[in-house]
Design a protein that fits this description.
Blueprint (H helix, E strand, L loop, with lengths): L9 H10 L14 H4 L20 E2 L16 H10 L1 E4 L5 H15 L10 E3 L6 E5 L1 H4 L1 H7 L2 H11 L3 E11 L7 E4 L1 H9 L6 E7 L10 E3 L6 E2 L11 H4 L10 H11 L11 E5 L4 E3 L8 E10 L31
Antiparallel strand pairs: 1-9, 2-10, 3-4, 4-5, 5-12, 6-11, 7-10, 7-12, 8-11
The structure holds 2-oxoglutaric acid.
Cofactor: Fe(2+)
EC number: 1.14.11.55
InterPro entries: EctD, Phytyl_CoA_dOase-like
Amino acid sequence: MTVKSTPLNAVNAHKQYSEMADTPNVQRTKVQSKQVQSEQVQDAYPSRLTNTPERTWLPRQDAVVKGRQLSGPLSQAQLDEFERKGFLFIPNLIEGAELDELRQEMTALMSNDEYRNKDFSVTEPESQEIRSLFAVHFLSERLGELASDERVAGAARQIIGDDPYVHQSRINYKPGFAGKGFNWHSDFETWHAEDGMPAMHAVSASLILTDNHEFNGPLMLIPGSHNKFVPCLGETPEDNHKSSLKAQEVGVPSPEALTELVAEHGIEAPKGKAGGLLLFDCNTLHASNANLSPDPRSNVFFVFNRRDNRCDAPYAAAKQRPDFLAHSLDQQAQQYR
Ligand SMILES: O=C(O)CCC(=O)C(=O)O
């Protein structure tokens, strides 16, 4: 199927996205970029708008679970739950010595002073505490293995419908009393606007490496929000990532939009012992509170993207973000070691 790059009206744009929704390996031409946007070309997922959008949200154009027939660790019932809620929590996926080893690996990575001033190591807005360490599947062989472990990558394959590659990886670290929160957002909104990810064919896998409980800032998600794309107000500032990774202000839904969605769908916060795995769709709205408890909360995230959905020119930013935020298909670990 060929996708035309000529200007589309909204209806046609939606039709084309839904035609390609379940079809891996489709050659496509980007239908929108910042430049053509100003010529009134419609994007199925427009955001970073200058005027308040008429509608709070637009319907998702891409199927959610695309690989039911593929082999993998998830049952059909688990895939059903993911399809319905936009996330799935699997308690105690990893236990015992294997979990201990992963936790030691995380501690070693987070305390490695060599990473302190690197761009892939992001500190808290008001301190030098590391908040996020990116590219961890390249920094650590052990985490690299985990990213291709069938229990994790196989689940991603069943969801996105083809073998994945790692678009992004990170450890988010929230030390006791000091770890700050994350504002509500859809990851896809940022990856589409700032990295050029065309469609919703990506899933995050977050292995919780410390117990996540109600007081240490567990991830909160709006079940069902993955089916609604919320366009956000405000142009992307230059080098937005330098501030947004510390505290995201652009690319966040309005309080009105969030109020409407939460009124309809509620909020859930899967919690559990270290070793649980949370899979969540790239468009599920999520956030987390600061950690005011004494217990640290640390999770490692792998974002799996479908190879035919690799990023190109950003849809609503002047230039692509650095590689550590959006790896290409052929990126090598050596760049980070
Ligand atoms: O780690 C968290 O609590 C939030 C993670 C998140 O939203 C992100 O890194 O985009």
